[in-house]
Amino acid sequence: MFTATKRFTATKRFTSTKRFAAIPVLLALFIAPQVVQAAQPLPVVTAATIETQADGVGRTYLGRLEAVQAVNITSRTEGFIARRAFEEGQFVNAGDLLYEIEPALHQAAVAQAKAQLDSANATARHAQTHLNRIQRLGDARTVSQSDVDTALAARDTARAAVAQAQAALKTQELQLSYTRITAPISGRIGVSHFHTGSLVSPASGVMTEIVQLDPVRVVISVNERDVLSATHTSGDLGQAFSDTHMALSLRLSDGSPYMKMPVFESLGNRIEAQTGTLPVRLTVANPEHRLLPGGTVNVTAQPRTGDQLPVLPAQALQQNATGYFVLLVNAEQRIEARPVRLGAQTSHGYFVAEGLQGGESVVTEGLQQIQPGMKVSVRDASDVSAAAAKKG
Hints:
Elements: H1 2-39, E1 44-49, E2 51-54, E3 59-67, E4 70-73, E5 79-84, E6 91-92, E7 97-101, H2 104-139, H3 145-177, E8 180-182, E9 187-189, E10 199-200, E11 208-211, E12 216-223, H4 224-234, H5 237-240, E13 246-251, E14 257-258, E15 263-267, E16 277-284, E17 296-303, E18 308-313, E19 318-320, E20 323-329, E21 335-339, E22 341-345, E23 349-354, E24 361-365, E25 377-380, H6 381-391
Parallel strand pairs: 1-25
Antiparallel strand pairs: 1-24, 2-18, 3-12, 3-17, 4-11, 5-7, 5-10, 6-9, 7-8, 9-11, 12-16, 13-14, 13-17, 15-16, 18-23, 19-20, 20-21, 22-23
Helix pairs in contact: 2-3
């Protein structure tokens, strides 16, 4: 009995001792990963502080010259050209005679129309006189009412014939006036496709062309990013290109400056799908006719004043399926992803219209090893650049 009790006590003591001996092992297994994790170094990234800059960066566009007005000259009547009154390539003024078509046939038609009008007038006078006589007899009950009605209808028919003859005369006079083809606008006239003795008609097509040279139109293609930037800062692209906000200047194809300043005229109503650009039209005075339609010029657009916008370094810009974004380092030294809307491009990066503020810190190097929410160790980009320059 004593022996059994002693053995049980010894066994219980051994089991308790073994249980307490396992506690340090369990604590070690629980604490070890945290110690390892605490000892693991944080990812090192290089970050740049966002600076602000006035959005006054000039932009240069290739401009295409167009005529504000270009008119195709055609004949409005049929006949033989009696005279060509211009030299090909000369400057003509609005109203100048260009072609004269033989008028004899049209003059005869006008004379015939006048004779028909005189005949119609005579018939109308006779009808009115006859109606007056019949009405007097009708009052005396000498003729029937049917005779009065017939005379009244004859008078009205004669009057209608007069109106018809007047319209025919006007038509023939117009046809006669069309034998003198004049310039509808001022400009430089092109090559004549018909010459003296040629038979022309409205179906003959273009006889020559006049192109207005003063002023001329300059068409530039503004990319979609600049369009969005302008609408963000100025509210409207047309307002952005107005003289109040933008100083516009031209350089000719040989690099020399053009002394006349263009002014904003209008803009397109859609982005071109193939180029991703919006056409913007300017006009510029061209009194010396140095600018010719079909040519090209360089258009410099320099903002007069600019808002202070954040400038994002190009190496910090990221893109995914939803658009552009950046990785920032917040006050807790943790990574934060933020979408941005870009403005115009600068020599060092991009203006940011939305998403960033001056003084914030964006990651420029080490982007592959970090994710949003991670805590990082930060190196300043300016210190890294200075060290690299000193080493070099």
